[in-house]
Amino acid sequence: MSEAAGVIHDIGYQRYAGPRLGRGYVFTSLYVHSLRTAFGLGRSAKAKIFPWFVLGVVFLTGVILAAVRTQVPDAGVTYTAFVDMMAWLVVFFVAVVAPELVSRDLRAGVLPLYFSRPLRRSDYPYAKLAALATAVWLLLGAPQIVMFLIAAFSVDNMSQFWTEVGDVGPGLFYAALWAAVFAGIGLLIASLTGKRAFAAGGIVAVFLMTTPVVGVLSVMPSQTMNELALLFSPSSLVFGVGVWLFGSPDGNDNIGPFGPLYLAVTIGLVAGCVALLQARYRKVASS
Fold this sequence. Notes:
Elements: H1 22-38, H2 45-71, H3 79-108, H4 111-115, H5 123-152, H6 158-190, H7 196-209, H8 211-218, H9 223-228, H10 234-246, H11 259-286
Helix pairs in contact: 1-5, 2-3, 2-5, 3-5, 3-6, 3-7, 3-10, 5-6, 5-11, 6-7, 6-10, 6-11, 10-11
């Protein structure tokens, strides 16, 4: 009776000898993939419908407002006013996109796979936050660039051109401020659940349900309370910073001497959201 003998076959597998791209490449890839996901790129046609509908609306609005500005210069249509006008639409954009970026990963249980690569636990929320903030800034900032280009080709002299440059800069900064607040709050809420419907509802609720509080406080008999009322909703909080930095769009909004407080609370809110996101993913990664 012969004994069975084992045979080792060389089928040509070799060890990887190429460059190992490391943590930075993984972070950048995750950021780019998340930004593409925000606009449905690389996904089904169904996933593209809502983000591209929002893009179409904001760009169409920007073109219309740019035409109004060229025909009626004193109409009060400013770049910062455009951002305020589009803010509520962006709330729903964030409510749809933020769960797509993080809730799906929680539900599918793929986070251990991410963290098995040269990616630190803090890198994942930073990449997702940066992608969402970039997507929101593009929604609010890119139409302003279009508005600026239309206005720039309509001016009569260089003085008017430089006036437009001075106007669009604050508008782009204001868009970045909105993007930071929207992304921080939206991603934090979405990271708490793997169910996208719950995450979307929670994001909308935070922005919409705090608005009546502002309305009540703004009609209180105390002037100080009226001036502080905008602090009690994320949307009105950023609007208050805009009033302090760029003035009230209609001259009726008054925050008194509390402009620096509005800015400090906004910065604190964004920093708090980032800190809570880090704590959230440390917990997820260790569980």
